[in-house]
C-alpha cells in the first residue's frame, strides 16, 4: 500500500539521505514537508523556503514542499506566487495567526491564491502555539473561501475539538457547488490532534459524511529527527480503518491518493 504523509514539519536544515532512510524504515513512500514557520519577516520566510526547497529538490519523487506563508506580511502574495510557480512547492501552509479568514484585509491574498488555483493546508483546531491563537483557527471561518472556488484547501487535525464543525464546513462547501464532486473544494487532513478516546469515532464520522476521497493522512512529524511516531500513527489508523470495514482501495485513497490529488503541484 502506498503511504503519503501530508503533514510533516521542518524546523532546520535536514539531510535528504537521512530523511529518506527514516521514510523507508517507516514504510512511507512520500512526505509533504512544511517549510519552517515565520511570523514577522518576509526575508526570513524566503530563506525558510530555500531550506525546504533544498530538501525536496534532492528527492522530488519522495518529498514535496508546502510553503509556510503568513498572509498578512507585506509581499506575501508575491512570495506565494514565487513558491508555487518558480520554486516547485506543491501547496501553501497557513496558520490563521491572530486574524480571521473572513477579514476584508485578507481578500487580496485569497484573490491571488484563487488566481493561482492554489492548494492550501490550514491549521484548524486547538493551537499549542502562537499565544492565545486557537480562536482564530475554527474551521467555520474558512467558509469565506466559497467565494474563491479555485482554491482547494484541507482542514488539518479534523479541527479538533471542533470536529463536527469541520464536517459542517465540509457539507457547506459541498452544497455550495451543487454536490458536484469535481468542484468540491474542501478536504480533511486527519493528522492527529484528536485524542485516543475519540479518534475512532472522529474518523468514522469523517468517512461516513465525506467519503474516503475527501480525507488525507498525515502525522505532524518532524524533520530532522527521525519522523517521530510516524510508523505508529500509520499502524493505528490502518487498524481503525479496517475495523470500520473500509476496503483496501478506500484505505489507500486516504493513505495516499487524496494527498496526491490535492497537492499535485503546478
Task: Based on Cα principal axes, name the global outline.
Answer: globular
Beta-strand segment tally: 9
Structural class: alpha/beta
Specify the helix fraction band. Answer: 25-40%
Query: Number of domains in the coordinates?
Result: 1
The CATH superfamily name is Metal-dependent hydrolases
Quote the beta fraction: 5-15%
Going by CATH, the architecture would be Alpha-Beta Barrel
Order of neighbouring strands in the sheet with most strands: 8-7-6-5-4-3-2-1-9
**What is the mean predicted local confidence, pLDDT?**
97
Output the CATH topology: TIM Barrel
| Main sheet specs | 9 strands, parallel
Pick out the low-confidence regions.
none
According to CATH, what is the class?
Alpha Beta
* Helical segment count: 8
Structural descriptors:
alpha/beta, TIM Barrel, nine-stranded parallel sheet
